[in-house]
Structure to design on (621 residues):
């Protein structure tokens, strides 16, 4: 009888298992870790718009975690209809490792399939006492800089690349001098946290450092959260374009029959309504009217791209981030 | 890891202390004071912080945070996981304890060590192992997919890893007790004509009930708090596969400090209830 009970319980547990494969009335958006409130607003607006247009109630479910982990989970079976990530490489993995999306995924939607973008910017203490304005201020002897470990954090890799790109430009593309520059930058970092959230805590709650470097969207969001009288945002005159790529996961939507909703969802991000929500959450967008509306929030700056400076993500990963690459060289010998 | 011998040791120590001489008074009090201060600093303060932060914006904000649909669902999923996992592990624990304390067979000691493996490996290893077994690119992945069975990133995946991580709890409580009790009672029952089932329900079960409940309480606490293994296999779909510990991390990453601490306070409350139950059960067991 005991055996029977075990079987019954196991059967019960498994019975709850297989996902209901009914007509899709919803999609799953698998996203990066700090985007929860943003997509909560987007989803609310989208479901309302979809109901008006197609007359159907749908739900958009959300999953949030580090985007590399999310990509891995999708490859292992997490059924994401769309992904909205903060790293181009993490989307590319879905093609390279499992053929979940076609090779040309980036050309399927405008702006490299990136409905919004951001850039590494600075958060400084009120009044900017150390007069930090540009990247070369960060290597001064009297400045302590906070950003996470570039070996573990995608966010910090952008900081590293932006600093490197700045130094290349300032030194006539001299690689050796650019490497010296980032070495000096690393030497000014008192603690390397593993992720962006921890680095913010180090800067704000432990009061360590003069400047925190992270995406502009987070700089502005953190400032609003922690007190606009206590911190100031500084956008350097030149920085690196950070794209937030999105795509439909073809293998999943074709299996579930949810392609129409999924594509609709991503297109919504490009509509004025979608762009407005994105800009409200401190992301830069390309829609001209929305751009004008939020012009005061986003100071003018010149953005360089990974393609122009580093010859694309593929080449960049091999030269800089591979084992024994440039990052290892400048990071360990600091 | 505790073994039956370790469990027997404190009893011996206690009795020898009773007969030995009293320690010097000042040293005695200093030690007590140090222990109290350290417990307050390392345990009391963090727990106080949880509730202070959870309630710092007032009780109505606290309630609003807890009753957010995503947090409510996380609480429900965590409770559901415990409802499924704890009974299975109780049955498993009884079976194993019965087997290794009532029978002699080659590999018995090895089996005792073997069931404690979940204690000695990190939960993240458990999660990753299950992923490599049942994930799409894992060993059984293609087979499961061809039958359209999905395990990873669903609720049963959470049950499975929780089962793995907490499987030793009940067995570990029962084995030393059943070893100490011996099988005389059961042999007597059988001799008097009781059937196997009668022996189990009228003799064995009453003898082990408090230890069994004690193990269940510990198992329950661990199931509800499990983070590492669940984090790997859950997929963290909000309102579907997000357990309470995962929801807390999510809220914290979102800079929603009050929400994170409000959710934490529910886990802390469960922990307090567990401790009280544990205390009561320990007294029952001793008495």
């Amino acid at each position: 009888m005991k055996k029977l009970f075990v079987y019954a319980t196991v059967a019960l547990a498994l019975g709850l298992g297989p996902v209901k494969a009914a007509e899709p009335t919803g999609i799953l958006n698998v996203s990066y870790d700090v985007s929860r409130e943003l997509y909560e607003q987007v989803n609310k607006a989208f479901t309302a718009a979809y109901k008006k247009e197609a007359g159907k109630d749908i739900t958009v479910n959300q999953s949030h975690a580090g985007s590399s982990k999310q990509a891995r989970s999708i490859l292992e079976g997490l059924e994401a209809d769309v992904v909205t990530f903060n790293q181009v490489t993490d989307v590319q993995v879905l093609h390279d490792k499992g053929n979940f999306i076609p090779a040309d995924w980036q050309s399927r939607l405008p702006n490299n399939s990136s409905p919004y973008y951001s850039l590494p910017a600075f958060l400084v203490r009120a009044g900017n006492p150390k007069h930090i304005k540009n990247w070369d201020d960060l290597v001064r002897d009297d400045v302590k800089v906070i950003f996470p470990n570039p070996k573990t954090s995608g966010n910090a890799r952008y900081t590293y690349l932006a600093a490197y790109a700045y130094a290349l430009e300032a030194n006539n593309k001299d690689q050796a001098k650019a490497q010296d520059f980032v070495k000096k930058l690393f030497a000014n970092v008192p603690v390397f946290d593993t992720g962006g959230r921890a680095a913010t805590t180090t800067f704000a709650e432990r009061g360590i450092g003069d400047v925190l470097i992270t995406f502009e969207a987070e700089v502005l969001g953190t400032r609003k959260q922690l007190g606009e009288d206590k911190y100031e945002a500084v956008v350097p005159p030149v920085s690196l374009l950070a794209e937030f790529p999105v795509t439909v996961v073809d293998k999943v939507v074709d299996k579930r029959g949810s392609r129409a909703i999924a594509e609709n969802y991503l297109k919504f991000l490009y509509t004025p309504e979608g762009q407005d929500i994105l800009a409200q959450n401190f992301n830069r967008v390309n829609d001209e009217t929305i751009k004008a509306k939020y012009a005061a929030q986003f100071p003018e700056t010149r953005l360089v791209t990974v393609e122009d400076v580093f010859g694309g993500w593929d080449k960049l990963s091999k030269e800089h981030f591979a084992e024994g690459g440039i990052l290892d060289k400048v990071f360990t010998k600091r | 890891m505790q073994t039956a011998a370790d469990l027997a040791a404190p009893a011996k120590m206690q009795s020898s202390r009773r007969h030995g001489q009293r320690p010097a008074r000042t040293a005695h009090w200093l030690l007590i004071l140090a222990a109290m201060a350290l417990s307050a600093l390392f345990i009391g303060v963090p727990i106080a912080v949880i509730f202070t932060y959870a309630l710092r914006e007032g009780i109505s904000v606290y309630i609003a945070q807890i009753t957010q649909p995503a947090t409510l669902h996380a609480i429900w999923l965590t409770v559901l996981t415990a409802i499924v996992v704890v009974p299975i592990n109780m049955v498993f624990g009884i079976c194993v304890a019965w087997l290794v304390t009532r029978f002699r067979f080659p590999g018995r000691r090895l089996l005792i060590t073997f069931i404690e493996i979940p204690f000695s490996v990190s939960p993240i290893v458990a999660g990753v192992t299950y992923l490599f077994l049942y994930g799409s690119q894992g060993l059984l992945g293609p087979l499961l997919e061809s039958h359209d069975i999905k395990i990873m990133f669903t609720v049963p995946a959470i049950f499975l890893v929780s089962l793995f991580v907490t499987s030793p709890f009940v067995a570990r409580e029962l084995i030393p007790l059943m070893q100490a009790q011996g099988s005389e009672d059961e042999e007597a029952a059988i001799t008097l004509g009781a059937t196997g089932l009668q022996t189990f329900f009228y003799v064995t079960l009453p003898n082990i009930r408090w230890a069994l409940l004690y193990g269940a309480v510990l198992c329950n606490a661990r199931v509800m708090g499990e983070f590492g293994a669940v984090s790997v296999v859950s997929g963290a779909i909000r309102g579907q596969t997000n357990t309470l510990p995962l929801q807390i991390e999510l809220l914290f990453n979102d800079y929603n400090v009050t929400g994170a601490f409000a959710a934490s306070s529910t886990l802390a409350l469960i922990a307090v209830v567990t401790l009280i139950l544990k205390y009561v059960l320990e007294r029952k067991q001793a008495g």
